[in-house]
Amino acid sequence: MSKKIVFSGVQPSGEIHLGNYLGALKQFVDLQHKKDCIFSIVDLHAITIWQNPKLLAGRTREVLAIFIACGLLPEKNIIFKQSEVSEHSQLAWFLSCTARVGWLNRMTQFKDKAGKNKEIASVGLYTYPVLMAADILLYKATHVPVGDDQKQHLELVRDIAQKFNKDYNQEYFNLPEPLINKTATRIMSLRDGTKKMSKSDPSEQSRIMMTDSNDQISKKIMKAKTDSLKMPSSIEATEKRPEIENLINIFVACSNINKQKIIDDFASKEISVFKKELINCVTSTIEPIAFETEKLLKDQKFLDNILSENAKKAQLLARKTILEIKRIVGVIS
Ligand code: AQP
Q: Strand 143-146 and strand 36-41: pairing?
């Protein structure tokens, strides 16, 4: 049986939020003990939407600090910065020649992020899923832990891998499987239960940051949008109330308590009673991570050293794939 390799990336496009943690990072921490893991801070993805150059480097280090503070071990996994391994961009070009325009046209994340002004969105935002395919296929990853929002992109990665194999008449790429965290597939905005919690939402009140203080978390949860009814008594009733369902999902994911039990415990109580318990649950999840992150961020040299050492390890694997791809495609290397 082939080796199980996990790859996943996080963009330094803003401060890491609770959705990123529950949908992705928490799973990374479990996976590191079960499989060979490669985690990338995908700065080339982040710049598909303009990033302030004065903030990008700091945000990149912050993602690394949060990774470590959450429990990812830099000596056990390959944790590196995407732009430091130029083979990602190189493979993205080869795969751009395999991917079809019609496939990219169907990507809903591009439609969401470009909004009504598709014509002025960057070409990078449009071809983002091809770079994502390169990230994953460069390391022949077998499993990709992602939130529900990235499921469509991963299907595209599989389509690209399959077409490449067919075009060059060999089973070169395996087809990576998504690993979707069932309890936190999609954490939603605190201001709108139908929109996902996102780094790029203009409202800071919409998301809980992994570096927020207990006081900030408490204020955000108390102000989180809800209706004025009492807490629901069944899963069916919960599903009709997106904002309440989101808060219950956050409780489930942070506490690891079963959803039915949480619904039973708070059935017909005031929402404010539930919110107070939710605050305790979220602050006890975030406080130790925020504390450790702050400590790590004081040692920039330590963080930069991890990034450069790990980039070397990633590049050894990446170079091998690029040489193989060049040979398959017929490009002299
Ligand atoms: N709201 C979410 N709920 C669950 N999982 C989520 N993820 C992101 N938002 C949620 C998962 O976090 C990982 C890293 O995401 P990313 O850095 O690639 O960013 P993104 O998916 O584009 O979403 P963000 O964090 O809101 O950033 P912006 O605003 O820049 O787009 C992924 O595994 C993702 O599924």
A: unpaired
Q: What is the DSSP string of 274-290?
A: HHHHHHHHHHHHHHHHH
Which of 150, 201, 252 has most ligand 1 atoms within 8 Å of its beta carbon, as the pocket-test mutant?
Answer: 150
Atom of ligand 1 at shortest range from CA of 13: 30
Burial class (CB in 10 A: 0-12, 13-18, 19+), 262: buried
Tell me which residue of 132, 93, 127, 92 sits closest to 110, measured CA to CA.
127
- pLDDT value at residue 297: 97
Residue nearest to atom 35 of ligand 1 (CA): 147
**What pTM was estimated for this model as a whole?**
0.94
Catalytic site residue 196?
Answer: yes
Class of domain 5-185+299-329: alpha beta
Choosing from 26, 35, 140, 199, which is the catalytic residue? 199
Expressed in angstroms, the distance from the first to the final Cα of the chain is 31
Q: How far apart are CA 275 and CA 221, in angstroms?
A: 7
Question: Average pLDDT over the chain, rounded to whole?
Answer: 95
Q: What strands, in cross-sheet order, belong to the sheet with 177-180?
A: 78-81, 36-41, 5-10, 143-146, 177-180
Domain 204-294, CATH: 1.10.240.10
pLDDT for 116 equals 83
Task: Show the tokens assigned to 310.
Answer: 């790990």
Closest ligand 1 atom to residue 49 Cα is 30
Kindly tell me if the per-residue pLDDT of 1 is higher than 60: no
**Integer Cα distance of 116 and 106 in angstroms:** 15
Residues with CB under 6 A from ligand 1: 8, 10-11, 13-14, 19-20, 23-24, 146-147, 149-150, 184, 186-187, 196-200
Q: Quick check: is 140 catalytic? A: no
**Domain ranges within the chain, ordered by starting residue:** 5-185+299-329, 204-294
Confidence of residue 320 (pLDDT cuts 50, 70, 90): very high
